[in-house]
Amino acid sequence: MRPKLKYVNYSGTKDRPGYWQYRRGGQKFRLQGEFGSTEFLQSYQQIHEKFETQKRGPAGVIPGSLRAVIVSYKNSPEFKTEIEPRTQRDYLRYMTMIENDFGNLPVATMRRRHVKKIRNKFGDTPRTANYIVQVISILMEHAIDEDIRETNPARKVKRLQGGDGHRPWEEHEIELYRRRWALGTFERTAFELGINTGQRGQDLVKMERSHIKSGVIWVKQLKTDERVSVPISNDLRVALDAWFANREAWIKKRESQAKPRPVPIDVRLMVLTGDRGRAMTEGRFQHIMIESFRGSKESKGSKKRKKTGVEGLSSGMKQGGVTTHGLRYTAATRLYELGVSFDDIAAITGHETAAMVRKYAKNKRAATIAIGKLNAGTAAQRSNESDKPDLEK
To answer: Which helix (H) or strand (E) segment is 218 a member of?
Structure first.
């Protein structure tokens, strides 16, 4: 008579052969080797120990559940040391969304249809839905590393199409923005940095004055860890001169008061600083830029409309309007129109942005050809009409 092992049973019947498996918490794991062999007992012990360890984990966490994998991944060295802080924040936000609605799902039995069901819950916002799938895929890879499952059900789940997303700014939109924000303002300076260097907001706020040398800005991109040099255009040079003059005047005003106020070191060290002379965070930078795009809005507690941004400028992807990230695409598009190769554009702005410019340029060329054909057809039609006899005469 075989000894009894907790959570172990045989999957077969008298008529159909099967295998020994460990069943627990709605999950099944095939045990290796012949029953009672050293290989079998080692396989059993490894699986059983993982469940027991999870059982001793945080209260309310079901062993083997999606929530348990999330907790495990958050505590893993891969998450803590190999991922940038900004990306960590994004992952945490989406993992919370997954955990709130689907935390109790057993990971071992998840299939593609389950991942698609989770994706479809966020179908109204394709970018969110696609990011959710990406995070689930990362969690499933972690589950494979932890021997909770053998395959990744999110690996081939199709991403949703969500429109064109960020787009380059049109020339009339650039003109509207420059008219609204004068040289020397934070908004104008940040705008010129973005449109003339093609760098991400997280890189713009980290720029130091010492990075500007001999007509070039040296940038170490946080996302790619690449170090690139971007020549300073005439527009950017004029904007930086006006901005640094603004900062010098701000410093002089604080130091010349009857009771001088301390001057933060950031205002002399960093390129971009806030109203109080402190270094700018990425979140604060994004907030200021979004507000600078928008039109008038009602002030709190008043029916008067406060002018904050640019009248006539549509803002945000949902409206098909402009975005801060779109300045990267504008910079890359301008480089392309000046004859710079896609490889050189990618070296400055990144491969993803260069690929977008290739697509945008192709669409723009197709539109130009279509308009050309339309114009040619209209001209031919007019010519034919002019050749017809005038019946009234």
So the answer is: strand 216-220
